[in-house]
Structures are given as C-alpha cells and as structure tokens.
Amino acid sequence: MKNLRLSTLLTATVLSLTLASCHKDKQVNLVTTPVTDGFYVLNQGGFNDNNSSLSAYSYASKQVVADIFLSANGRGLGDTGNDIEIYGSKMYIVVNVSSTIEVVDPNTAKSIKQIKMFNGTVAREPRDVVFYKGNAYVTSYDGTVAVIDTASLAVTKYITVGRNPEQLTVANGKIYVANSGGLDYPNYDNTVSVIDPVSATVTKTLTVVVNPQNVTADANGNVYVLSAGNYSTIQSSLEVIDDNADVVKSQTNFDAAAFTVIGSNAYYITSLGKVGVYNTKTQSISNAAFISDGTAITAPFAITSDASTGEVFVTDAKDYVSNGQVFVFDKTGKKEYAITVGINPGRIALLKK
C-alpha cells in the first residue's frame, strides 16, 4: 500500500511549519499568498490524526506558503492525503481516510468542489487518480475505480477491479490498475486490471508478483509494475508489461518502494533510503546512487522529476511525526535547495516554471 504501512505508525502532532534553505542565495521566507509558478506538496499528516496539509512553493519568490488549503478555505484537507494531480484548470487532491476528493483551483488552492467517496455510509477510501480524455479515474480500497467527468465533477460509474487497488496509469489508450490486497495481509492480491475507458469495463486481468502497488508507463510501450512482495519470503520485484499485447514480458527482483518514470529515466527509492536511476531504454539500472554530493536524506518518502529541467524532487518524512522536507536536485544529483513542509510529504504536483 502506497505509504500506508508507514502512515499507520504515526501519532498525533502539532502542525508548526518552519522554513529552511540550503543556500544563502536561496533564502526561503514564510508568506501567506498563493503561488502560481512552483509546486505543491501534499503532506499526508498522521494516520487518523486529521492533519493533512498542502504546502506551496514559488520558484520566483523562493517562498513557501504553509498549508495554503487551510488559509484559502478556512478548513483542513482531512485525514491522510494520498495523491495530488493537476488536469486542465483543476487540481485534484485524494484524501484517503476522509474518503473525499478535493477539486481546487491550482492557482489559489480554493476549493471548487468536494466529492465524497462513499458507498451509502461506508467509506470507499480513495487512493490514486489519473486522467484520460476528460475523465478522472480514481482507485478506492473498496475494490473499485471511479470514473469522474472532469467538466461536471460527477461520478458517472464505478468499475469493479481487484482487492485494495493502489496506483493506476494510462498507457496505449488503456488504464492499468495495481491491485495490492494490502488490507488482507498476508493474503495479498497479485493482479493488474486492464480497463478499456471507452466501455468502462475490465478487459483483462494480469497476474503479477504479490502486493503490486506502483504502476507507471514510459513512451515505448512499457508499463512498469512495482510489487512489494510479502516482506519476508517473497521479494519486491519490477515487472514490465507490453501495453500492446497486455502480457508480462519480464520480471526481476527489484528493491524499491517508489518508482516514477520521466522520459527515458525512472527514479526510485530503495528500502535502504537510496535514490537510484533506471534506464527505460536499456531496461537496467543506470545509476544506483543518484545523489552525488553526499546530501543525506533521513527517510526518503516520495520522488518525482521535472522533465523540462531534469530536476529531481525527493521528500523526507524525517521521523514521521514532525515536519518533513523536500530536497531538489539538479540532473547530476547535486542539491540545489531544500524547503521544510508538513508532516509526511507524500506527493508533489508541479506548476509551470
């Protein structure tokens, strides 16, 4: 489960945000106005602590807005923010335990609509969101993928997939869903559902290594599935699916807890807290130690990259109960700067630069 096994260890804490900078010429100051040219950080907060928050950083001013969602809306995000993505003129924030999706203006963080994800009175517990041709697709732990019209913001259908689906991705006009079964420990799921977005049905179910959590795709016809295994006798693995034939074409043991593809590189975080680079053209690790300047990150939690600049963003959860940080590296692995954000910074959404 994406970050959940860490989140369940968290306890209540006080949200007090301080700002840090790694270079004298990149001083960061606390401000109270929105940003439109940087990135957002979704901080999970503590599991069941109801303290998720949204930090915003401006490239132009080199300033951070602490919990911009709270200041823009007069209320908090809720419990355990799990995903954040920008599509068109809206930003979508998936809040797992609160079972809501906050749709906001990406320039102001002002709420446009809160979509409640419940089956009657039972929380569906949404996890991840992707977009395709005017629809948002959202996985939920109740074994469904919700289809949301991004114009009306109405849920038009729920598609039944495997148990406790985590991430999903779009490739070759299809939606691939990693079904972890993570809430049924030790009886994990081991499938990937393939959805046809036209008919909104599952057209194929692929068998993979147990506990698949991360799924992403490159531009060369490959879908990558990162399975966590059972944390004892079955190792974590990386499987590659041919998105034309929808077959698993390779599988290898692979130590990683996060995997994100940007261009021909995939950046990942190992169980030992190292950041590595996987080459999607050669299908092999090209750099097992991406950070080249000795920068130490206490507890790497999430990773992403900006394709336009080559910059790599790594979040640091620290001790999982205190405010975390985001480290920004250039494409050679040298630290450019770092900022302090909220508790358990789990996902980043990039604005224009």
UniProtKB/TrEMBL annotation:
InterPro entries: DUF5074 (IPR031815), Host-pathogen_enzymatic-act (IPR051200), WD40/YVTN_repeat-like_dom_sf (IPR015943), YVTN_b-propeller_repeat (IPR011964). SUPFAM superfamilies: 3-carboxy-cis,cis-mucoante lactonizing enzyme. PANTHER family: DIHYDRO-HEME D1 DEHYDROGENASE (PTHR47197:SF3), PROTEIN NIRF (PTHR47197). This is 40-residue YVTN family beta-propeller repeat-containing protein. It comes from Mucilaginibacter mallensis.
